[in-house]
Design goal:
Blueprint (H helix, E strand, L loop, with lengths): L2 E7 L6 H9 L7 E7 L6 H6 L8 E5 L6 H11 L4 E6 L3 E2 L3 H12 L1 E3 L2 E2 L15 E3 L2 E5 L3 E3 L11 E3 L4 E5 H6 L11 H11 L5 E2 L5 E2 L6 H15 L1 H6 L5 H9 L5 H7 L3 H38 L13 H5 L1
Parallel strand pairs: 1-2, 1-4, 2-3, 6-13, 7-14
Antiparallel strand pairs: 4-12, 5-14, 6-12, 7-9, 8-9, 10-11
């Protein structure tokens, strides 16, 4: 087996058929397998995947419901993978017909790669108007290159660590194992943490421009707000995990700072797409404030109580909680 594609799924009955059809159309000459890691779906996802067993030769479906989260599901998928190269994609997107060949070639050359996300095929025109899309030639992308991570940690030689999404990522299994897989504490933004840990270990993240996926946006304001708020919240685990010690005063000031530009952004809205851009920016900032409180401010307060009053608060569950028990 040359390549193992790991697809983590949860309640994906509305979109997964399109992704599986796209994977069934792949025409790579080398042997590859698809591992669908079911994270406890309660809809018809399992049955839909099983119906593709005759279309995708090396299709495996595994139970990954023991712990909530895509990180856990992807780790379970990699555990059973037979190939030395691993590719990740998502159930609500569609890989292009040459994706397997392109992502495999990029992994073989570089070891750790991410590809672009095109947005024209799966989204209505109003949703992808500027300032949402990034135009490259005649095509609009959600991500046309790797992005920079602007929170600590930072590379020792300056600049920023690069990020890519697990909806279009490839890596050698040996690298995945060396960095310890995905951190299962993260329920969102696990791909950012994964990229940082790989680069901290010395593995450079490369861009694979020809390994393209069609990326699907959420179309309701409520779903969009929830998605970006969660991203904002969970990104705050990164500075807690890697950043230098910061005073409680600075953490609290971060929670309440950065809101001054919101009235100006509201005035700038001229289209439906602009409204979605405003909502996403607001949701991310709200999530960051929420994450800063939950992951950074409250632990500091708990530590202060623990230092001042000893273990008396443990009976009430107020101090020294296991972070995983608190976040799951």
């Amino acid at each position: 087996m040359k390549l193992s594609v790991v697809l983590a799924v949860y309640n994906a009955e509305d979109t997964i058929s399109e992704q599986l059809e796209a994977l069934a159309r792949q025409t790579w000459d080398e042997p590859w397998e698809l591992i669908v890691a079911n994270n406890g779906s309660k809809d018809q996802t399992q049955a839909i995947v099983e119906s593709f067993s005759s279309k995708i030769a090396n299709l495996k479906i595994i139970d990954a419901s023991q712990r909530k989260g895509a990180s856990y599901a992807r780790n379970k998928g990699v555990e059973v993978a037979q190939a030395s190269m691993i590719a990740f994609c998502d159930a609500d997107d569609i890989v292009r017909d040459n994706w397997i060949a392109e992502i495999a070639a990029a992994i073989e050359q570089h070891g750790f790669v991410c590809g672009p996300m095109s947005i024209a095929a799966l989204n209505p025109g109003w949703r992808i108007q500027e300032p949402i899309g990034v135009r490259v030639g005649d095509e609009l992308f959600h991500a046309s290159d790797l992005s920079d991570h602007y929170f600590p940690p930072f590379p020792k030689d300056g600049g920023y660590f690069r990020n890519g999404g697990t909806c279009n990522m490839g890596i050698l299994k040996s690298i995945h194992q060396d960095i310890g897989g995905f951190d299962e504490e993260f329920l969102r933004y696990q791909d950012g943490d994964y990229c940082i840990r790989a680069q901290l270990k010395g593995y450079k993240l490369h861009f694979a421009p020809q390994a393209i996926v069609e990326y699907r946006y959420r179309l309701s304001l409520r779903d969009t707000f929830s998605q970006f708020r969660d991203w904002g919240k969970w990104v705050m685990l990164i500075p807690r995990k890697y950043g230098p010690p910061t005073s409680l005063r600075k953490k609290i000031s971060y929670v309440f700072g950065g809101w001054w530009s919101l009235p100006l952004e509201i005035i700038k809205v001229r289209s439906r797409a602009g409204l979605f851009a405003l909502i996403t920016g607001f949701a991310i900032r709200l999530g960051q404030s929420q994450g800063c409180i939950e992951f950074m401010v409250l632990p500091d307060i708990q530590d202060w109580f623990a230092a001042k009053f000893g273990n008396s608060g443990q009976a009430e569950g107020a101090v020294n909680q296991d972070p995983k028990a608190r976040l799951d």
